[in-house]
């Protein structure tokens, strides 16, 4: 229960004032005993207090910056990226939302990485990267002059090194084919993922009209890179197998459900997860769908081909850090 105010009766409940030497500062204290400065102008301070109590981001706060970024910038990214950024933005808002952008310091970002990194170090790095891009955009918008995330060391990450062997992939495809019709479809898609080296989302949205005489034309959703994957006998056979699957309704997509519609990312993940769980239960080592992309890129590197032409990466840095799963490097003698 809030005690009856005896002084400053012109102030609304939960607003207090401090008279400094030159100006008055208005502030509030939350139920968790958190001190929040509202400003020096009474009308503006009242408005900020109402926004706080209603759960809305305070004008000029990092919370407002996050909301603007998620409305204007994030939706322009790949659908999967935007979807992943929504919970990350919410977490950042809960931690930094009430601060002013100019008050955020590198030490605050580092502290967030340390605390969040105790349970989710990789996720903390992704959230820090998102916050950094938000502040880079804020610099373009004229909100801040510097990015407090720059120069803050990330948490150490151990690159994934799971490499799916040829024998494993062959055996998994045979296993999946023996389960049911869904398993037969997943077997074909697994082969397609390896042969093309493309991301799951791009394969699920692959339209039949993109199967040209030269090969498969893909515009990658993540970076908009255009990749033409030329036909090989194995790739032609894989695509033919997908076309031959039972589909009562003729659709526009190579990989589709019985109604001719493309699978959603979550729906496909669920189907893949069920077959992979059965594969593991039968005594085999599991692997992710993304491991097949790494397998394809690793094979390109082993063969001395330019893997970026297949993966769509602008440089080889990401290939070396994430996708090159070779257990050892091979080289001929100098002479």
UniProtKB/TrEMBL annotation:
Residues 159-335 form the Tyr recombinase domain. The keyword Cell cycle does not apply. One of its GO terms (molecular function) is DNA binding. GO terms for biological process: DNA integration; DNA recombination. The keyword DNA-binding applies. InterPro entries: DNA_brk_join_enz, Integrase-like_cat_sf, Integrase_catalytic, Integrase_recombinase_N, Phage_Integrase. PROSITE patterns: TYR_RECOMBINASE (PS51898). Pfam families: Phage_integrase (PF00589). Keywords: DNA integration, DNA recombination, DNA-binding. Belongs to the 'phage' integrase family. This is Integrase. It comes from Nitrosomonas supralitoralis. The lineage of its organism: Bacteria, Pseudomonadati, Pseudomonadota, Betaproteobacteria, Nitrosomonadales.
